[in-house]
Design goal:
The complex is a heterodimer of chains A (247) and B (315).
Chain A: E1 3-5, H1 11-14, H2 24-29, H3 33-58, H4 63-79, H5 93-116, H6 127-132, H7 139-166, H8 170-181, H9 192-199, H10 203-228, H11 232-242
Helix pairs in contact in A: 3-4, 3-5, 3-7, 7-8, 7-10, 8-10, 9-10, 10-11
Chain B: H1 6-17, E1 25-33, E2 37-44, E3 49-56, H2 63-78, E4 87-92, E5 98-103, E6 108-109, H3 110-113, H4 120-139, E7 142-143, E8 152-154, E9 160-162, E10 169-170, H5 174-178, H6 180-184, E11 194-196, H7 203-206, H8 213-229, H9 237-246, H10 258-269, H11 281-291, H12 293-314
Classes of the chains: A mainly alpha (247), B alpha+beta (315).
């Protein structure tokens, strides 16, 4: 495979991306308080739903606890510097987080049981996490991944909405939202002509608006994946996996 | 955060994964993937035939890469040659990615097939066809810049095809001159871009200097090196000398052009002296003996017969 590098140093991974914002892991390990806060927020927003789905799947019937476990997990994750233990050579960051969450939730449940009997909370044995990072995919992992995909798309849609507003292209987003995001009964998806009439545009303008929004949505997804990935390799794997295309 | 329905997630996934090509083409499966592009096996509904469709990879973003893909399709369209895959159609996806349709090539990649070569003759036949193709491209002002066994396909009927012209530079192409984006990816040292593959790219390419025809000669030398290495035993000295001259670190030390390299390979195949190797007197004799084996054998047989006749007459 050919290598291509540029002054930006992004190589293949960057492939045209302006790396304006560091990855979540880099930002959280840095000293810039604003970047740390923003990265922590992105991490929580991207992984809150997957962790919640995981906890609900592992411990069904404890819906009330699931929210608390998820909330406490992210508090602990960011406060106790667990992310520093992530080693990209041992597996994906996403798998690392899933295993962390599973261990945390298991301990949380045990501790909750002990509290009822007068005991207290214990630390998560994170040394075990590295060994579990390569844990094989199972149903819980699938649920975790599906929720993560939904989160990534949700973040990208939000990013696109902001980008469109900043660029004065709200109509572009509105057409995209109506055509690609909104659910329609079978056979009732609006045609380009109908969208053109609704927005007072020509059909070709609708096509161009939609093309811009889709192009930028794709860029938003890729940027979100890049920031959330634990390594260049993981980023590429995520892109392939998310797009459902085997390399 | 935007709450998406499962159906919306599915649509967005499809939107990201499945390129929206014109109705004329149906995508079947991914058959190849490189750093920049993805190649699908597709079907052309109008001409009712299978085709290969190349488009920018999902993670590749930016106008410069689109320009590069467009340039690749234009270069390929310009290079009508049996050793180069023909382009039939090209365009842009709604999401901005460039694509083009080309003939679907079936066969083995050279790096996979080289281990099955029966001898030097097979390797030289491939090298001859490769050199012909690259020489044609050079005559058209195009430098490939990423020649390697993985970019050569051997067809079932002996075809030798040079693939992946994504790194190529067409000096005479108007868009190369006009587009800053394309020149940023075309080896312009002002932009510090390095294009090529370690082990196959010429030293000047690796150093970020402009690549020219002699850089392709280095790539051909690297392919010859690999083909000879896949054969048992050490290569004959003249052939090793041809390889070494093509792989000279200094471009000035290589063959002046691909035709000179091809001619040297042909001279070797024909048993003649090669420009890259100075023979000793014994080697000249041995080569001449090999080259003119048949007439030498006939003359020798004639002389033996004459001597035998003379000897019998004396008795």
């Amino acid at each position: 495979m050919a290598i291509e590098s540029s002054p930006g140093g992004s190589g293949q991974r960057g492939a045209g991306f302006p790396e304006t914002r560091p990855s979540v892991l880099v930002a959280l390990a840095g000293r810039d308080g604003e970047q740390r806060r923003e990265a922590g927020e992105l991490l929580c927003r991207a992984y809150r739903a997957p962790v919640l789905a995981l906890v609900r799947h592992r411990w069904p019937g404890k819906e009330a606890d699931a929210e608390d476990v998820t909330h406490d997990f992210f508090d602990a994750l960011l406060e106790k510097d667990w992310l520093a233990r992530f080693d990209p050579d041992k597996g994906r960051f996403r798998t690392f987080l899933r295993v962390c969450a599973e261990r945390f939730a298991a301990n949380w449940q045990q501790a909750a049981g002990r509290l009822k009997r007068g005991g207290g909370l214990t630390e998560v044995p994170l040394d075990l996490v590295a060994e579990l990072v390569s844990a094989e995919a199972d149903d819980a992992d699938r649920r975790f991944r599906d929720a993560w995909v939904k989160s990534v798309f949700g973040l990208a849609v939000e990013g696109l909405r902001d980008e469109a507003a900043t660029a004065g292209r709200e109509r572009h987003f509105a057409i995209f939202e109506r055509y690609d995001l909104a659910d329609h009964p079978a056979g009732e998806r609006p045609t380009y002509r109908r969208l053109a009439e609704e927005h007072g545009l020509s059909e070709s303008e609708v096509v161009n608006h939609l093309a811009w929004a889709r192009r930028r949505f794709r860029a938003q997804v890729l940027e979100t994946l890049r920031r959330l990935a634990g390594s260049d390799e993981e980023y590429r794997e995520d892109v392939r996996e998310l797009l459902g295309v085997d390399p | 955060m935007s709450e998406l329905s499962p159906d919306a997630v599915g649509r967005l996934r499809d939107l990201m994964a499945k390129p929206e090509l014109p109705d004329r083409y149906r995508l079947v499966e991914v058959v190849g993937r490189g750093g920049m592009g993805v190649v699908w096996r597709g079907y052309d509904r109008v001409l009712e035939r299978e085709v290969a469709i190349k488009l920018l990879a999902e993670h590749v973003e930016g106008e410069a890469w689109v320009a590069r893909m467009e340039r690749e399709s234009r270069i390929l369209a310009r290079l009508e040659h049996p050793g180069i895959v023909a382009v039939h159609d090209a365009g842009l996806l709604p999401d901005g990615r460039a694509w083009y349709v080309m003939r679907l090539v079936r066969g083995d990649r050279l790096d996979d097939a080289a281990g099955r070569f029966g001898g030097v003759g097979d390797a030289l036949r491939v090298m001859d066809r490769l050199a012909e193709t690259v020489a044609f491209a050079h005559a058209e002002g195009v430098v490939h810049r990423d020649l390697k066994p993985a970019n050569v396909m051997l067809g079932p009927f002996g075809e030798v095809l040079v693939l992946d012209w994504g790194a190529a530079r067409g000096d005479t192409s108007a868009d190369d001159r006009a587009s800053p984006a394309s020149s940023a990816l075309a080896g312009d040292t002002a932009h510090g871009t390095v294009i090529g593959t370690p082990g196959y790219m010429a030293p000047e390419q690796a150093a970020g200097l402009p690549a020219d025809e002699r850089s392709d000669i280095y790539g051909l030398g690297a392919i010859l090196r690999d083909l000879l290495a896949a054969l048992p035993g050490a290569p004959p000295k003249p052939l090793a000398a041809i390889r070494d001259r093509a792989l000279a670190a200094d471009p000035a030390g290589r063959y002046p052009d691909v035709v000179a390299l091809r001619d040297d390979l042909r001279r070797y195949q024909d048993g003649g002296p090669v420009a890259a190797y100075r023979e000793g007197p014994l080697e000249v004799v041995a080569r001449l003996a090999r080259q003119y084996r048949t007439p030498i054998l006939l003359v020798s047989a004639y002389l033996v017969m004459r001597l035998a006749i003379l000897w019998f007459r004396r008795i």
